[in-house]
């Protein structure tokens, strides 16, 4: 399989999943004359939107880094990549749930939504780890790979998911921090 | 027609159709405090989502294999390819129907939805066969082509569609198995 | 402007507009146990879907042919191309209207919807003509261009639009025939 | 990071955001037999659609110009580009709000919607400026850059946003004029 077409298809799914997130931003349908209050009450939607968008961009940057080091792609790798894309493409669903129930739901439902969000993040990072580990084990990857960054995600997302079962708000804070960490990490390393 | 642009357009349709599937995953609108039960009751949505996503990735992998062997594309091939893309792009519609009626519908409606799903799968595999056969007949294709894999799909999808008319659940099981078969087949061949 | 990126952006819009058409296919929300009848009553949706999908593929094939002959793109051409893409991207809207009102509307509304569909087709073929004429006038285009095919579209779409004001059904038939004509024309020329 | 993949991902987001705008064009749900009046009353939707589509095409053209002059992309630039894409991808949301409340809302809500539209335009031009300034400061950009055009956007969008707080209609006129200015500017310079 040519790397070019695998990248084109993957880039397409990443770009579309990120852009579809906007469909979860909805008219608040506030009482007439109170659109501003309605929009402000929707703050969880904006936080969830920005976090999910940033998460997809981060995964895309890392996906690019992995594929750039590949000499070739074989079929198992293609299907593992498909698994990763499925986890990425599903993100708008838990993002919408989390935004909606943080805003209007009873705490039990908000926590459920935050747990679902965490499960989708775990699915994504596990699929990404499988892609990377398989590529390494088959000698398809040429460059060294950053194990530390992975392990942190593999630890923090399950942690945030467990915390979310008790408090969606605290869970959301961890999801935001993980995204910021993954943006800050490569920047810091560059400077350091 | 340059192969590059035909691939870019096709990759776009495959990627978008796969990613649009997420719009069929909906808030279950459960009673307050019962989001978890509502999400669990929606299991047919998740099975349908994963099956359709996997089916699109499989068709994309095979589409790539066919185009990779082509020396060039002529106009009839472009229009046959357009037919295939139309069948792929429509998949979110029967997927949504199947998920919805497996969950809430009376058996008659669930069976109808499963038959529609099967018809769309048949349209897809027939269009794909036309693309491949035309390319072969015109000598546009260079490599050998796997006739067995095709014939199995051409047999199993109509079978699953007929079965679906009597039981949507059994039909869905066959759709899942066909997808798994198409993932397992090339992997097994590689090892074997 | 590099041709490659103009093609990538255009291919993206064509592919997305074609794939978004599926969102106009909706659950018929028939009475319980009558999904089949509900789906069959929706036949205008399927005709409109197939016609619009085919129209976008046709425009994409021709767009490719024009860009393939270009030596370069300048800014006016980029903006004319943007106008064409806007006309293409809007197609799901009149498609949805036409499908809906052919099915449930009084004749007056169905005719209105068919006229709107025609106006969007006219906008598309006019924008496409502007792109082609500008490219020719500036000597950016290398190959000869098929004026006959254009003129037919420039005649038939306004005709169908006028007819639609009196009968949406007859209008739809002409829209279908124009699409079939544009598929048949290059195939016939090849054989001839 | 290879420029090619950054361009492919960016082109994807631009193309999808532009094409998703069509989902904000909705069936007016007019009384039976009054579809035409319903569609005509929706004029703010068409103005908002065309303005946002044009704005995205303009940003895309300029984005291309910036990336074309880059020798390479580093990580901070990738994340700044991600910020820009987030601002672009969100445009369908304020576009939908503006179209809806210009049509049905009390003036207070229409003004709120027009302010939100302006804020999203400001976010976009600020992110674009950051991308350009960072690329220049790091010597990644080879060509000269048009500072005047930027400054005008950086002045006019905040101005339009402030005006919108008092009159959504006047705000919309400025948004349209800014888009027309950005189309006319490069064309005029070419001729001049």
Oligomer: homotetramer
The stretches of 5 or more residues of chain A where confidence is low (pLDDT under 50) are none
What is the chain-wise order of helices and strands of chain A? Answer: HHHHHHHH
User: N- to C-terminal separation of chain A?
Assistant: 38 Å
Rg from Cα of chain A? 18 Å
Helices of chain A, by number, come to 8
User: How many separate structural domains of chain A?
Assistant: 1
Secondary-structure content class of chain A: mainly alpha
Strand content of chain A: under 5%
Q: Shape of chain A, please?
A: elongated
Tell me the greatest interface: A-B, 35 and 36 residues
| Major sheet summary line of chain A | none
Give the helix level of chain A as a range of percent: over 70%
What is the number of E strands of chain A?
0
Mean pLDDT of chain A: 89
Overview of this structure, please?
The structure is a homotetramer of 192-residue chains. With 192 residues, chain A is mainly alpha-helical. Chain A has one domain (3-191). Helices cover 80% and strands 0% of the residues of chain A. In chain A, α5 packs antiparallel against α6 and α6 packs antiparallel against α7 (147-164). The mean pLDDT of chain A is 89. The A-B interface holds A 1-2, 5, 8-9, 12-13, 16-17, 20, 23, 74-76, 78-79, 82, 85-86, 89-93, 96-97, 100-101, 105-106, 108-109, 112-113, 116 and B 7-8, 11-12, 14-16, 18-23, 25, 27, 30, 32-36, 39, 49-50, 53-54, 57, 60-61, 64-65, 68, 183, 186-187, 190.
């Amino acid at each position: 399989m040519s790397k070019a077409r695998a990248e084109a298809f993957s880039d397409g799914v990443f770009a579309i999943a990120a852009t579809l997130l906007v469909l979860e931003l909805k008219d608040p349908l506030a009482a007439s004359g109170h659109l501003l209050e309605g929009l402000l009450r929707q703050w969880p939607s904006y936080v969830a939107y920005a976090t999910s968008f940033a998460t997809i961009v981060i995964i895309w940057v890392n996906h690019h880094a992995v594929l750039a080091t590949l000499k070739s792609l074989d079929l198992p790798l293609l299907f593992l990549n498909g698994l990763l894309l499925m986890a990425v493409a599903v993100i708008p669903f838990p993002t919408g749930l989390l935004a909606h129930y943080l805003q209007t739901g009873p705490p039990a439902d908000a926590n459920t939504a935050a747990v679902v969000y965490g499960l989708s993040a775990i699915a994504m990072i596990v699929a990404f780890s499988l892609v990377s580990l398989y590529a390494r084990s088959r000698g398809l990857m040429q460059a060294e790979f950053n194990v530390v960054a992975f392990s942190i995600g593999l630890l923090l997302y399950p942690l945030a998911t467990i915390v979310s079962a008790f408090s969606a708000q605290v869970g959301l804070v961890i999801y935001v921090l993980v995204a910021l960490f993954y943006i800050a990490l490569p920047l810091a390393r560059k400077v350091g």
